[in-house]
């Protein structure tokens, strides 16, 4: 029994044990929305940029609405403008509808759908819909 214990300890020390590393805490402005930020990206720099945009646009509020923006206002965490979810001369149904992200602009109140809309728009136009690349 003693030999078996010594062999086990030797194997453990030679092969290395399992080390669990916790994720480094992020200094987020929208810390209550970390799950949405991680849904968008696991890349640390992108996460900080997404956090910055979310904070600047909505102060992390999923029901934020700016009625003063053109095209019916801007909705939710990422302040997605109505332009992207309404029929136009460029899009018969609405651009986000054609991308199968949502059915109506009201769907943008859902934080997951708002984040999906952000991701599809970012893939298409980069940071341009949010005024250019964040300073981060």
| Helix coverage percent | 40-55%
What structural category characterises the helix and strand content? mainly alpha
Largest sheet: 3 strands, antiparallel
Rg calc: 22 Å
* N-to-C series of helices and strands: HHHEEEHH
**Poorly predicted runs of 5 or more residues:** none
Mean pLDDT across all residues, rounded?
87
Distance between the termini: 58 Å
Number of strands: 3
Corresponding CATH architecture: Orthogonal Bundle
Q: Return the CATH topology.
A: Lysozyme
Structurally, the number of domains stands at 1
CATH class categorisation: Mainly Alpha
How many individual helices?
5
* Percentage of β-strand residues: under 5%
User: In what order do the strands lie side by side in the largest sheet?
Assistant: 1-2-3
Shape: elongated
Question: What would you note in describing this structure?
Answer:
With 136 residues, the protein is mainly alpha-helical. The protein has one domain: Lysozyme. The protein has helices at 2-15, 34-40, 44-58, 95-98, 111-125; strands at residues 65-66, 74-75, 80-81. Strands 1-2-3 form a 3-stranded antiparallel beta sheet. Helix 2 (34-40) runs parallel beside helix 5.
Please tag this protein with its features.
mainly alpha; about 40% helix; Lysozyme; about 140 residues; elongated; single chain
Please sum up the structure shown.
The protein is mainly α. 40% of the residues lie in helices and 4% in strands. It has helices at 2-15, 34-40, 44-58, 95-98, 111-125; strands at residues 65-66, 74-75, 80-81.
